[in-house]
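agent: user wants the full assembly modeled, not chains individually. Plan: 1) parse entity lines 2) check alphabet per entity 3) run joint structure prediction 4) return tokens. Steps 1-2 passed, two entities, 738 residues total. Proceeding.
--- entities ---
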Amino acid sequence: MQPLPQALPAPGPGGPRPAAPLLALLLLLALRGSAAAPAGSEGPQGSAAAPEGPQDSAWQRDSELPHGLLQRAARAALHFFNFRAGSPSALRGLAAVQQGRAWINSKKECQVDLEFTTEHYNPEEGEERLGKCSAQVFFKNEKPRPTINVTCTRFMEKSKRQQEDYLLYKHMKQLKDPLDVISIPDSHGHIDPSLRPIWDLAFLGSSYVMWEKTTQFLHYYMAQLSSVKQWKTDEDAIDFDYTVLLHEFSTQEIIPCRIHLVWHPSKPLKVKYHCQGPQAPEEASGIEEGSAAAPTTGLTNY
Amino acid sequence: MQGARTGGWGPGLPAVDRWTLLVCSFILAAALGQMNFTGDQVLRILAQNEMQLSLLRDLEGLKPQKVDFWRGPARPSLPVDMRVPFSELKDVKDYLESHGLAYSVMIKDIQVLLDQEREAMAKSRRLERSTSSFSYSSYHTLEEIYSWIDSFVTEHADLVSKIQIGHSFENRSILVLKFSTGGSERQAIWIDTGIHSREWITHATGIWTAKQIVSDYGRDYILTSLLNTMDIFLEIVSNPDGFAFTHSMNRLWRKNKSNQPGIACIGVDLNRNWRSGFGGNGSKDNPCSETYHGPYPHSEPEVSAVANFITAHGNIKALISIHSYSQMLMYPYGHSLEPISNQEELYNLAKRAVQALYEVHGIKYLYGSISTTLYMASGITVDWAYDSGIKYSFSFELRDTGRYGFLLPATQIIPTAQETWMAIRTILKHILRHPY
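--- prediction returned ---
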């Protein structure tokens, strides 16, 4: 990753001090010999571009990108993209971030504009095709559910994608009851090819959850599909109730989430979920059992 | 058999032994032909409050008995495990659901589990006596690895020996392989894998690397020169208790298995327990957290064993600590953004090592200091090593970047080990040329 020039400090806790950073910016630009320009005019490649990003003067270009911010923004954008596309056969994974810029305001909200490449989540043998996406990701101050605008180059012909989805759908309707399956992948990372569609569908539902939970500091991976609670295919759609284990990277925590989705190819995906909250440490007054303790959030039936 | 009423975290058998004891008793009972557990399930319930706990206790009090607690209702947020005979399943699940008690199926069919355990136990008696039939492209259990170590040391006794440097919290041996062509008090390289038990690709890479070292000696000029003047220490299972737990109960377990009286959660993050920036922002003092640093530096036997060994040795010149996942090669510090004095040298070395890695299978690694490349992490091995005077302190994060994460398919073991070896070899070459 190329380090971006250290220019403006982020706004301090005392609130915005427009004068000082603006002065610093002007000084910096003057030193660089370029004409004074609004913040955000220089991309990481060094080429001047028309100012993008928020026009509101409360925003300042954040050149000291918090480490990994671009990657987190790209992953959030992809989770959102995958969820919105609702297509288990056309899932995309992050290949590489190409460039990005970030702006931060006095409320510590953060907007990231970026471009990145993607690859097919389930590549065919020898398939190397890369897609391209550009996205605007708006993180609220440490609150989840970033707002996302994302467009990607067409990866697969629409008709092909629909065809693959229908094949997947038919395959899933014929699957023997997978309630026996305890985990996918198994401990050795193996996914039985016949169960692959279940993983893909589970990942699609998890994409919704992972998008919603991502903040500028927290980002998630789907570690394992840990149980299938219900798998109904007698109706038109696939009704899938399952638990996944999400891995949050910066805290290294494993978060179980119960997800219930309803999927039919070419219809919008419906997802409900509940994730387990963090476990609180408890001290017993002795080693006897049964002492009253503060309740912690846990799995609830919904 | 009446399930033992095992509530809370009081003194007694550690969880592993308790579980084994229960399973063994079941096997005994089944073997005597007296009991059949087909279709019986073990359910795990997380009660949220005292009221729910008492609902569970009511279940146990029913006559005739419908359930049998393997881990009884103790306090909210501690899981309750109960065996439910097949004939009672519907009634019990209805009871739980109607009272809003969330449960998950821990064991879908006890009889199946017992049959598997019995098979495994029979198999372990036939454990391989040589390493030629050991599969380097599979993941193995602790027993299999320890057995392989013994065979490996026997087969390559001219070059390799086994050292026990201590015991884990649950009293398992902590083993280190020493590669040496002789001499005494030679300078040495230290490599460790498996400090975080769920990172299975690291143990597998360690095992393959051991094999690579013995086969490269006499064939590869760098490795041969190195071993002619220096020793290599390789600790493959740095967290044996955690590793055993990833096989028996929780594949995604990270920490060790230590527990303190009165504390509900177990385990300390062994890579936050070192005496360097201990307790800083890149760790947590919450025992339930995955990055809990423990009560004080080197409180954990798995850490103190290594720290004491390295300190007593006094002549370790490089320390390479191997983790997964993220595809990164990094150097200190993790606890601070402040660059180390040897930053430039280590940066350039990392760059070359990563290039050598890339040339094997085209896998891209990031590189840099831990705090700027990965995240802030306090009390980590490599920071301690560097502060102890070990200039060449590196940390690897192996494949992948999240697609499979910790559950990396076994088919990627050998490619990962091959490319990692080329990076390690680059580092070894540099050390040979830059003694200190």
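agent: reporting back. Chain A has one domain: 60-287. The longest strand of chain A covers residues 92-105.
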